[in-house]
């Protein structure tokens, strides 16, 4: 796949027409500082995002921009127009500072929730205009939540964060830096995370299953679903494997962990879900459920 994003193969033919007119997809990354959020964004979208204008800071009231010493110090949004097989996509990624990077960690979730809300507000404002023919959809369609690879269980701050976010975004939990855990540890950790998520009534993105789908699609969906929370490894550098291949990965004394190898981590499955199999569902759920909820609350609170 390499430099190819893959969204042009969107499976849902019903949406081909709107897709051809061009559409938008916004991915946000959230989680502790140093868990590989910025690296994963680069790994996911590679050079797609490099030829862009300088990142715009969207942090409320903050004029700080960019990153200091590679650390993300403000909420940054980067977009790129990508075209594949005649399908136009405006791809946006919203990178957020880690909890540890905020001045005040007690309310570290607040600027992130504010950012999500202001994107809803911008959409609502356009909807209320007389001419609604060209709506810019900058709402967050997918929120990748990074879990520290402790192997234990979710921390209170993770639970708090996810509970602040789950009514507003499609939450996609991932185990960060999965290369630091053994295969057995990953399996056990995934189960513990899923238990914690269920126990705390956290709602994560669940792809809908349609009756209409063929066996192959159902199998593909089940395969993706079985990997949640995705154990990811990010790397934007190429390394040479023992057998001489050039791959994106991380090298250890005992060998190389390959990003794009399904036997090594779930990166490919995560990318497949985001920009191939479930992009349309993520957009739909954002519009039909999450945004609708937000809109209703907002209008009620304004007494409309
Ligand atoms: P962020 O603060 O969450 O944005 O984290 P960064 O992307 O800046 O990465 C922090 C450090 O972790 C850098 O030194 C990365 O090279 C390293 N890193 C990123 N992803 C991974 C990973 O999947 N595995 C390992 N072992 N290190 C990673
Ligand atoms: Mg960062």
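-> sequence recovered:
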């Amino acid at each position: 796949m390499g430099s190819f994003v893959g969204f042009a193969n969107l499976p849902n033919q019903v949406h081909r027409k709107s897709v051809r007119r061009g559409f938008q997809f916004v991915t946000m990354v959230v989680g502790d500082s140093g868990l590989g959020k910025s690296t994963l964004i680069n790994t996911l979208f590679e050079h797609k995002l490099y030829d862009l204008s300088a990142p715009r800071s969207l942090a409320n009231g903050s004029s700080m921009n960019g990153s200091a010493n590679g650390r993300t110090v403000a909420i940054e949004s980067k977009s790129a127009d990508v075209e594949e097989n005649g399908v136009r996509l405006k791809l946006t990624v919203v990178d957020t500072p880690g909890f540890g990077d905020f001045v005040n960690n007690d309310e570290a979730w607040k600027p992130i929730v504010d950012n999500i809300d202001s994107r809803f507000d911008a959409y609502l404002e356009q909807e209320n205009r007389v001419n609604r023919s060209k709506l810019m959809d900058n709402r967050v369609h997918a929120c990748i939540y990074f879990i520290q690879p402790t192997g234990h269980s979710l921390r209170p701050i993770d639970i708090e964060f996810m509970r602040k976010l789950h009514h507003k975004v499609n939450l996609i939990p991932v185990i960060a830096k999965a290369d630091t855990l053994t295969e057995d540890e990953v399996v056990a950790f995934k189960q513990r995370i899923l238990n914690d998520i269920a126990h705390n009534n956290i709602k994560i993105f669940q792809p809908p299953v349609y009756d209409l789908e063929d066996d192959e699609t159902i199998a593909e969906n089940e395969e993706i679903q079985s990997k949640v929370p995705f154990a990811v490894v990010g790397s934007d550098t190429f390394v040479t494997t023992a057998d001489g291949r050039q791959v994106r990965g991380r090298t250890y004394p005992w060998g190389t962990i390959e990003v794009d190898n399904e036997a090594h981590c779930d990166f490919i499955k995560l990318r497949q879900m985001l920009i191939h199999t479930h992009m349309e569902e993520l957009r739909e759920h954002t519009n039909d459920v999450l945004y609708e909820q937000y809109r209703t609350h907002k209008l009620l609170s304004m007494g409309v």
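The helical segments are 16-21, 37-45, 109-127, 156-165, 183-199, 215-225, 267-277, 279-301.
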